[in-house]
Write a structure and sequence with these properties.
With 196 residues, the protein is α+β, with helices and mostly antiparallel strands. It has a single domain, classed as Gcn5-related N-acetyltransferase (GNAT) (Aminopeptidase, 3-Layer(aba) Sandwich). Helix content is 28%, strand content 29%. A hairpin with a 2-residue loop joins strand 3 and strand 4. Helix 1 crosses helix 3. The radius of gyration is 16 Å and the shape is globular. The protein starts with a strand and ends with a strand. About 8% of the residues have low confidence.
């Protein structure tokens, strides 16, 4: 499935040009999303080293549930998990690229909970990749998956992710903070939501 979205602003309006093409295909077909200067696509078998370059990073280790250290073995396990959850229709993990080739991060949609998660590799931060990937995945969640609401779960101290949520048009919900333990570290998560 290849989906090209019109360029939406965070307030829901769209730019004058529109060039969206949506093709309905089976769940086993490859998915590629294009918009906001990004191409989101699925991981390839030969990208384990690129995956390590994205995820083996102190900030990624601190703010996300990714394995630490993230080596080739962790990359193989992640790829297997990603494909299994995709086949079950539970989650969609897509590589963040600007050209359809070089992996610069990953964005994930949990179809069961409507939650989006993401991470950008250390070499590619400061390019608004997270903001653009969240916008694109949010559009996909609403327009293709038919989710009325999607959410981001963010620690109050994570200023960068809070800024991404605000820029992408999410609002802080009144949902009680969730307390979770990740890698032995207790943390509180605030829920930011975006309505279709």
């Amino acid at each position: 499935m290849r989906v090209r979205f019109p360029d939406f602003r965070p307030d829901g309006s769209q730019h004058a040009h529109r060039h969206d093409v949506i093709m309905n295909m089976s769940a086993q077909d490859t998915i590629e999303l294009a918009g906001h200067g990004l191409v989101l696509r699925e991981w390839r078998d030969d990208e384990l080293e690129a995956m390590v370059a994205v995820f083996d990073d102190p900030a990624m280790a601190y703010w996300t549930p990714m394995a630490t250290p993230f080596d080739l073995e962790a990359a193989r396990a992640h790829l297997e998990r990603v494909r299994r959850r995709r086949a079950l229709g539970e989650r969609l993990h897509l590589v963040i690229t600007t050209d359809g080739e070089q992996p610069k991060g990953e964005v994930m949609l949990n179809k069961l909970t409507g939650t989006i998660g993401y991470g950008v590799g250390p070499a590619y931060r400061g390019q608004r990749l997270a903001y653009r990937a969240v916008l694109l995945m949010t559009e996909y969640a609403h327009q293709v998956e038919g989710l009325a609401q999607v959410s981001l779960e963010i620690e109050p101290e994570n200023g960068a992710s809070t800024a991404v949520a605000r820029a992408a048009g999410y609002r802080l919900s009144d949902k009680k903070p969730q307390t979770v333990v990740e890698k032995g570290r207790p943390t509180s998560l605030l829920t930011w939501v975006h309505d279709a």
